[in-house]
Amino acid sequence: MTELSVVLHPKLPPGVADFVRSVPGLRLHTPIDDEGVASALQQGAEVLVTYTWRPEFLVPNLKWIAGCGAGFEQYPLASFQAQGVTLTTAAGVHAACVAEHAFALMLALTRRIGESARNMSLARWVALPGEELGGKKLGIVGLGSIGEGVARRAQGWGLDMVGIKRNPANYEGCLRDVRPPEALPEVCAWADILMLCLPAMPQGRVMIGKTELERLGAGWLINVGRGSLVDEAALADALQRGRLRGAGLDVTQIEPLPAESPLWADPRVVLSAHNAGDSPGFGPRWGKIFAHNLEVLRHGGAWRNAVTTQGVLK
Asked: Domain check: are 111 and 239 in the same one?
């Protein structure tokens, strides 16, 4: 069996590099930075394992990008098609983990765990009465595997729920009330908690800005989708004015979040470093997709989680 030359980007989710190293018949390159990745690719590598992208990664010999993220907005799909490069994603791999993390953010906000953690660092004993989830109204924007996972977990907590999905007629999940994207303003006004569980909008368009936050009012915002969905200046303003009760963010517009961002210091904000999908189970689950697609690359067949130029998984 001819060895395939594979480049591992230095920033990968837990367990991915270990899985690839366990696969026979691969010649691995493990550069320490983006410049090293580009250099290794220029030396003839055919496969790139990554979730980040730079234009210099697209070299003539590249055949397959084994993506480690669910999203693909960072990739030049038309250029891939022109060169015959296949892009596959990790869609579905971290759905359960992200849904749990989203639920954790919701509890951290409503029970004021973030504020209590800050008090711990000061050895300050302050009783902070939190809110109960039972009876709260939860709006879930995006009902893919993550949003659906949140909805199923929330069923036993006594929450009223409304979902937003691009094509409500195609929905087959647990929610009874699912509306189209045009219903976002009314869902914002209705919800106590608004949770974003969807990929980036076309051209990185903002979904939640000043108007939507004003409609949400004295509620909570949670984002486990993409940082570009939220106008962070409007979010910081809503928090500083005391209108919004809190925000739980696993993603931000710029990552890492700049040190000068007011979101760092706001006690009503709970931040995690885009790690909602990271767990010891990620590598083995991603590895099943990688192993399948490696056989396709070598012997032909149907790709799993391949992305078309229209941005659709097939």
From this structure: yes
Query: Of the candidates 289, 294, 291, 287, which has an alpha carbon nearest to the alpha carbon of residue 305?
Result: 289
What is the Cα–Cα distance from 294 to 3, expressed in whole angstroms? 12
Q: What is the pLDDT averaged over residues 87-112?
A: 97
1 pLDDT above the threshold of 60: no
Q: 151 and 267 share a domain? A: yes
The pLDDT value given to residue 314: 56
Q: pTM (2 decimals)?
A: 0.92
> Do residues 86 and 113 share a domain?
no
pLDDT exceeds cutoff 90 at 311:
no
The answer to whether residues 125 and 262 belong to one domain is: yes
Residue 311 placed within a domain:
no
